Amino acid sequence: MEYIVYLSGEIHTDWREKIKQGAQALSLPIIFTSAVTNHEASDAAGDVLGAETNSFWRDHKSSKVNAIRTKTLLEQCDVAVVRFGDKYKQWNAAFDAGFCAALGTPYITLHDDDIIHPLKEVDGAAMAWAQTPEQVVEVLKYVTNIS
User: Fold this and answer.
1) Which of 44, 71, 75, 114 is the most exposed place for a label (fewest CB within 10 A)?
2) Domain count of the chain?
3) 82 pLDDT exceeds 90?
């Protein structure tokens, strides 16, 4: 069985690549999916529907266009990894975690211990909390162990 793992959350570090490389090194049967990780492209996703002078409406249209991809991929995944970084607030990642919880899709949170308190509800519904991409890979190794 191949698992589909959705990688959600902060886009300013290489955590996704570390997880993908770790899984590949172990030949784990995983297909990785993700939201668009190019910040400018994501912010401009709705621009094809017409220019906006008000930033609220630009963000509104772009969030809906982005949600086509995000909603579809979250509904199709077997497990999600939701990363919260320290530089920006990832409200979208919290939304993705809530969406997974509502769907009954297991997810792993990935964040440092200094933000445990603000993420207590998100972590409370998670199947695991990891502090490093390497820990995520170890969980995925265990979960995908077919033998």
Assistant:
1) 114
2) 1
3) yes
